[in-house]
Amino acid sequence: MVLALLWMSLTLLGALQSQASGKLHVPKPMHIVLSKIRLQPNFMEDRFQGKWYALAVAENTIRNGSESQFQMYSITFDLNKDHSYSVSTKTQRGQDCQNWDLTFVPSHVRGQFDLGHKKLYPGIQTYTMRVSSTDYNQYALVFLKMKFKNHLFYETTLYGRTKELNTDLKERFIDFVTDIGYDNENIIIHDSIGKD
């Protein structure tokens, strides 16, 4: 159950739940070097904070849209005095609302963060979040890399301040994720979960 706190999206949550049940959801073999993932120039941590909605996701455990039952979720980044983020994720599953909380601490590179309190999560070797692109008002493109029990998991999420995904952002997201190695079968465009 503690491991579920690590996942910032339902696709990664599903992968962990599969592992907990004894069925390892083996990720697509990929090797993405963090330094090859662009960073938002002059990242402004105070403007990035606030509520976002996951509009689209690409991740290396999705096969042929197998995770397409997952819905949009909200995520809130609250900036702390030490420049870390307290992160809360909220999703609706049927009639239940599920919440997860974790902390990301700044790394040596501006716009890149590592999971805080990693010792609380057995099996996690590395867990890094990188803000690749954002205009702070409409969208944010966030890349995650996690090494869990010697398996590499990658996720790229397109967040929006609203639940609306325009065609231009969708196309830019698809171009970005296919350029770094995801296949079309690794991409999900989320359905809305209701009112803001």
Mean pLDDT: 82
Q: Please write the string of helix (H) and strand (E) elements.
A: HHEEEEEEEEHE
Q: Kindly identify the CATH topology.
A: Lipocalin
Instruction: Return the structural class.
Output: mainly beta
Task: Name the CATH homologous superfamily.
Answer: Calycin beta-barrel core domain
- Major beta sheet summary: 8 strands, antiparallel, barrel
How many distinct beta strands? Answer: 9
The geometry reads as globular
CATH class reads: Mainly Beta
Please compute the radius of gyration using only Cα atoms.
15 Å
The percentage of residues in β strands lies in 35-45%
**At CATH's second level, what is the architecture?**
Beta Barrel
In which order are the strands of the major sheet placed? 1-2-3-4-5-6-7-8
Instruction: Tell me the count of domains.
Output: 1
The separation of the N and C termini measures: 28 Å
User: Count of helical segments?
Assistant: 3
Low-confidence stretches: 1-24
Helix content: 10-25%
Pfam family, one: Lipocalin
GO molecular function: small molecule binding
Keywords: Disulfide bond, Glycoprotein, Secreted, Signal, Transport
Main location: secreted
Can you walk through the features of this model?
With 196 residues, the chain is mainly β. The protein has one domain: Lipocalin (Beta Barrel), CATH 2.40.128.20. Helices cover 14% and strands 38% of the residues. The protein contains three helices and nine strands; from the N terminus they run H-H-E-E-E-E-E-E-E-E-H-E. Strands 1-2-3-4-5-6-7-8 form an eight-stranded antiparallel β-barrel. A hairpin with a 4-residue loop joins strand 6 and strand 7. Pfam families: Lipocalin (PF00061). Belongs to the calycin superfamily. Lipocalin family. InterPro entries: Calycin, LCN2/LCN12, Lipocalin, Lipocln_cytosolic_FA-bd_dom.
